[in-house]
Amino acid sequence: MDKSFPTDQNDRDALFQRLEAIEAVIARHEALFAKEGHSINDSPETTDGAIHFSGQFENASGSISYSWSRPPHHLLEEAWDSSFTRLSALAHPQRGLILKQLLNDPCSVSTLFQLGVTSSTGTAYHHLNELESAGWVRKGRGGVYEVPTERIIPLLTIISASEHH
């Protein structure tokens, strides 16, 4: 089967029509699951339970919806080293202030300093480097730092899980 993108307009149109038909089937199935009170997690593969988190978030950059699920045995069988490395990058009050600012409005190092989030640009760079190496922030165009979309809900989940329950 040739997997190259069709060059003929009629072939492309046919491909897009097939894609739209597939998307319509998926949408109907999702609606049916929701209507009947079922979820994807009702399958036999999840009879040992599941650990989930999900959320919606909106800031100056737009809105996102994110969901993640793992069976407990997967989490218990995996090494936790990389998870603890990522978590340890969060364990500093200054980094919490930086992340909070970036969640509200991505900005540059100089803006972090001007807003009083950090005491100097050097301090900002130090903490941003730690957060970036752990995957919690990334540097975008114009030197603007942001929390990557795929890390926003996990970060806020960690914060909410850390609240007093």
UniProtKB/TrEMBL annotation:
Classification via InterPro entries: ArsR-like_HTH, WH-like_DNA-bd_sf, WH_DNA-bd_sf
Membrane-spanning parts: none
Domain of life of the native organism: Bacteria
Gene3D superfamilies membership: Winged helix-like DNA-binding domain superfamily/Winged helix DNA-binding domain
CDD domains documented for this protein: HTH_ARSR
Name listed for the protein in its UniProt record: Transcriptional regulator
Source organism (scientific name): Corynebacterium glutamicum
